[in-house]
Design brief:
By secondary structure, the protein is α/β, with parallel strands linked by helices. Helix 2 packs across helix 3, helix 15 packs across helix 17 and helix 18 packs antiparallel against helix 19.
């Protein structure tokens, strides 16, 4: 029997407009579920919506709808976003569904019959926005005023969660004897140290449990709130939304005696935001203990996306719409960016610039480049697997190391680290292309070695996209199809693709996006980068044919005239990434390059390097460019800069940075 894996997201509050936080959690769960499916496991992935409560009822009243009509409309926003983001769920639970109500009422009756519930009069500060009571101490701390002034009405008390006003409410309700489980909760967490992750969150929960634990109010009077699941033993009350909502993880599996429940409970992972960790550990674990059910194997609380280190908030107006990211970057790139940019358990700051840099650097320059650089030899049959030479063996070793590390990180939900490990293989594959130069093998007629090299590169592509398929399912499936495969194959060995097989050519998977236009499309307002001093004006006439090439001149001999620092400072050097390269139409020793130097469009540079470099070998290379030279025509083709190379008039090598730095980076 295959290993099973049950993963859940929180059920999202149906009144919310889906934002980047919802997308983040759900994409992460989808990636984990897809990864387990690729590994042949029996997977169940659950998400859904929380549809009861006072806020829903009031919103429906304002719009002249019944609560059920209201949630039937608003739930479609979540369903549409998950479809757009290529989220592959096994079940979508709504708390208004009869199957959920049956299980919740069954739980309540069971706890009532066991004496786990009792009724008492309670008074406290109630927050409609958070749908919960707060203590004097909590309201006082949030409001920043003495509780006496708040009680006297001199200062409006504020909800510690939402910052909205609270009101003093006195009413009779039912309570769950949660305090009875305090010591058992501590013992369980200490005996199962992986049940709450990351480690810092586990320590946070244990710290909470070292203080006195109060019983949990699990009802609301129907006279105040009618929109909820009625208590089965008292029709004058409805269920408190958190007791209702948390039960979804079990209700979606049907009754505890059913086959689906026996097959998948306890859940392997509840993915939640750090702000609802206490509910999913202290509240939920206590409820499960009282019901005789085992807690989930792990609750993983991830951090928040922030804007300029500030939490996203509708009131501030800094909430990021994931639909906009998809419109600009596409689905796969959006999924990749959200899980690649920050460690999954930490907070992380979002900016349009970081999203664009990740897209152009990782997906265009690295991944798409690896796939597309050898597309012209797609019809060349693969060689039979043969003993590896030293260079080939290094690439094989990198594949084994990278995939082993990837798997270990995926087991720990360390998505960023998993992708970093995989990108070691992407980078190694691109460097392998540079070193073996398949274009040179084709030119020299060494078809046997070319077929061996193509096996190494196509197998590298297969390994990369098979592991990337959980993150970028559409583009990975496209590459697998080009390679003649119908599904990912996770083998790190270079003997999977059939001998003699060919590949199907295709367009680049990702195309570079313009910096300024993209940032503006994402809602940013970037200032245009200042032109370097003495930069050419577009109205200036270029000088015709002043020099034979635009590589740097030979270094002055020892004793040559020195220049001042001020003179040297006039030279503006930038890192450039070669986007395309082709032969000059009128000169055998010149190449015409398109180079991205971080501007709106790539620059055209003509360089005398054709004797040393094949055009195909240059695509994706990072070079150093002089960007403030006046344009010049070289054999009739305009050159808008100069690249730096070693070797004087007989160019031996381009100057390239040791590390991969972004296009447009200043060279000092």
């Amino acid at each position: 029997m295959s290993e099973r894996f049950y993963i859940t997201t929180p059920i999202y509050y149906v009144n919310d407009v889906p934002h980047i936080g919802h997308a983040y959690t759900t994409i992460a769960a989808d990636v984990a579920a897809r990864w387990h499916r690729i590994n042949g496991h029996d997977v169940r992935f659950l998400t859904g919506t929380d549809e009861h409560g006072q806020k829903v009822m009031r919103a429906a009243e304002k719009l002249g709808r019944t609560p059920q009509e209201h949630v039937d409309i608003t739930v479609k926003r979540f369903e549409a976003l998950w479809a757009k983001l290529n989220i592959q769920v096994d079940d979508f639970i709504r708390t208004t569904e009869p199957r959920h109500q049956r299980v919740v009422q069954g739980f309540l009756q069971q706890l009532h019959d066991k004496g786990e519930l009792y009724r008492k009069k309670y008074a406290g500060w109630y927050s409609t926005s958070a749908e919960r009571f707060w203590s004097d101490e909590e309201v006082e701390a949030k409001t920043g005023a003495p509780i006496a002034d708040i009680r006297a009405g001199k200062v409006v008390g504020l909800c510690p969660d939402s910052g909205q006003p609270v009101e003093w409410v006195t009413e009779e309700n039912y309570f769950f004897r949660m305090s009875a489980y305090q010591e058992r909760l501590i013992a369980w967490i200490e005996a199962n140290p992986r049940c709450i992750a990351p480690e810092s969150r586990k320590n946070e929960v244990l710290g909470f449990l070292r203080k006195p634990l109060e019983d949990l109010c699990i009802s609301r009077p129907k006279a105040r709130l009618s929109w909820g699941i009625p208590l089965p033993f008292d029709e004058d009350y409805v269920t408190y939304v958190w007791f209702d909502a948390l039960s979804n993880y079990v209700s979606a599996l049907g009754p505890p005696e059913g086959g689906l429940h026996r097959r998948f409970w306890p859940a392997d992972v509840h993915l939640v935001g750090k702000d609802i960790l206490t509910f999913h550990t202290v509240y939920w674990f206590s409820m499960l203990f009282a019901l005789g059910l085992e807690p989930p194997r792990q609750v993983f609380a991830h951090g928040w996306w922030t804007i300029k280190k500030e939490k996203m908030s509708k009131s501030i107006g800094n909430v990021i719409d994931p639909n906009r990211l998809v419109e600009v970057f596409g689905v796969d790139a959006t999924r990749y960016f959200l899980l690649r940019e920050i460690p999954f358990g930490n907070d992380g700051d979002y900016s349009p610039e970081s999203a664009l840099l990740r897209f152009n650097s990782d997906l265009v320059n690295d991944f798409s480049n690896l796939v597309h650089r050898v597309v012209k030899w797609s019809s060349t049959p693969l060689a039979e697997p043969a003993p590896l030479n030293e260079l080939d063996a290094q690439l094989q070793a990198t594949a084994r190391r990278a995939t082993e590390s990837f798997r270990a990180h995926m087991d720990g939900l360390e998505f960023r680290d998993a992708l970093q490990a995989l990108w070691e293989l992407v980078s190694a594959g691109n460097k392998y292309v540079d070193t073996v130069a398949p274009w040179a093998l084709a030119k020299s007629g060494d078809t046997a070695r070319l077929a061996e090299v193509l096996r190494m590169l196509r197998e590298t592509q297969r390994i990369v996209v098979s592991h990337l398929a959980a993150f970028c399912p559409a583009s990975s499936a496209e590459v697998l199809t080009r390679l003649g495969l119908s599904a990912p194959d996770l083998s790190a060995e270079f003997d999977v693709l059939p001998t003699g097989s060919t590949a199907r050519a295709g367009d680049p998977l990702f195309m570079r996006l313009d910096n300024e236009a993209t940032i503006e499309a994402l809602g940013g307002a970037p200032a245009k980068p200042a032109a370097p001093k003495n930069a050419p004006k577009t109205k200036e006439k270029p000088v015709s044919d002043p020099t034979p090439a635009t590589t740097a001149p030979a270094a002055p001999a020892p004793g040559s005239t020195l220049i001042s620092y001020d003179d040297f400072a006039k030279v503006a050097l930038r890192i450039g990434v070669i986007v395309s390269a082709e032969k000059h139409p009128n000169a055998d020793r010149l190449l015409v390059l398109k180079v991205d130097v971080g501007e709106e469009t790539p620059r055209q540079i003509v360089a005398g390097i054709a004797k040393v470099y094949e055009p195909e070998a240059l695509v994706g290379k990072r070079i150093v460019v002089v960007v403030n030279l006046a344009p010049a025509k070289l054999r009739g083709v305009e050159s808008q800069g100069m690249l730096l190379a070693a070797g004087g008039s007989d160019v031996a090598s381009l100057l390239t940075p040791i590390h991969e730095v972004p296009a447009g980076s200043v060279v000092k």
